[in-house]
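Consider the record:
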Amino acid sequence: MGIPFPSEAWLKALEDQLNQSQTYRDIAKNWEGDMCVVLDPEGDLKEPVGMYLDLWHGECRAARVLAAGELPVAAFVLRAPFSRFVAILQGKLDPITAMMTGRLSVKGNMAVMMRSIPTVLEFVRQCRAVDTDFVGSGVGA
């Protein structure tokens, strides 16, 4: 059984995964930008869940679940229904395609995001490396 997603424990595991990955460190060495990820409720997820990640030059300096209604100012805000994030984390939906088609809402400098596709893809690969249990998603890990 994996770590429940979304949860503080999952974010801590992701923070550790990112900080232990030399590949991520190398690919994301020029990335400067924190982000908020907002999972819109559906299925068993009854309330929106926000997550904050402080990503800086290949390091995750902080990761935490946001309090209800909290949305700090961040360089990027990613938002989509819960099942869409699950599909990205399970490899069923390409994150770049999701951004370009509006299936994943992105607020922030899209030019920076598009110049950083290798970083975005490596970040998602690191997310997928976390042993995850998609609690409340209605789909298996």
Summary: Helices lie at 8-20, 22-27, 82-89, 95-100, 110-115, 117-129. The CA atoms of residues 82 and 133 lie 13 Å apart. The first helix runs from residue 8 to 20. The radius of gyration is 14 Å.
